[in-house]
Design brief:
Length: 79
């Protein structure tokens, strides 16, 4: 969960550090659901990305990984 107030300058540093070799991403969008459209690139282990945005809607929002492998469960369903 991500908790923001209007005007918050949100800075997220993402680090791919999972124990499996799969890539992952960060998605905070209408699928979350949320009023935001913030998405990272897919990060492999050892990669980093910084996402920045100014919160324009207050609340508590879920985020998820949108990676959908060819086989097996999509990452969102894996939690
Ligand atoms: Cu994932």
């Amino acid at each position: 969960m991500l908790i923001v107030n209007v005007g918050d300058r949100v800075r997220l540093t993402l680090l791919g550090n999972g124990s499996c070799p799969a890539v992952h991403d960060f998605s905070l969008d209408n699928e979350s659901p949320s009023p935001y459209n913030v998405r990272s690139i897919s990060l492999a282990r050892g990669e980093t990305q910084v996402l920045k945005f100014v919160a324009s809607y207050p609340g508590t929002f879920k985020y998820y990984c949108s990676v959908a492998p060819l086989y097996g469960l999509i990452h969102r369903k894996r939690g």
